[in-house]
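To whoever is on call:

I kicked off a structure prediction for a single chain this morning and the downstream step that reads the tokens threw a length-mismatch warning. I double-checked the sequence; it's 199 residues and nothing unusual in it as far as I can see. Pasting both halves so you can look.
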Amino acid sequence: METASAGEGSAEIFAVTPDLQPKSKEEEAERAIYVATVISAGCADFVQSFVIDCRAGEMGSELQTAANKRFSDQEFGGAVKELSCISIYLTVLDHGGENAPDWLSKMLFISLKATDKIVPQPRAREIMQAHEFVTGLEDICLDASVSACRTLGFGDSATHAAILMQIFLLQNSPYRTDVLRYALTQTLEALTAHVASLQ
């Protein structure tokens, strides 16, 4: 997968400095879980809005027809999980990729694993392995988006629909940065309260 930076400029807006490193494994886990939870909530909101827009015909008649169905929890959750995992991966790229601080990469890896508690299937490992041989940021985002749309049951319309999801992933760097900033700078009590407000 691509290792170059994504979302140019985001690392300049929020510099991940050594003083932000969690001081214990317990703190690291709490902050990682916060990232996973909030990123997943944001992706769920996007998928819901995406489906509503498709049904309303705002994405064209082809997608309106494809979305004119009842989405199962497995379909909806699977699409959200796909976008969530890739978004967390992109957060690493936003902050340097291979040059990101080791502690940050480790914490976000814990975030990836935490998504398995939010949506059990498919497993985060399976999602990341499915895209491991895709190179180039845009191609990674498109590949994940096509997979998410197929999970939603869009069939032959998946590639068409995926373009819109790809744009979401590529342009969502400011949101990912805001989530990471909050996760690393706020108290654990504040993180817990925010997560509770999302439920």
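Update from on-call: the warning came from a stale cache, not from the record. Cleared it. Sanity check on the structure: The two ends are 33 Å apart (CA to CA).
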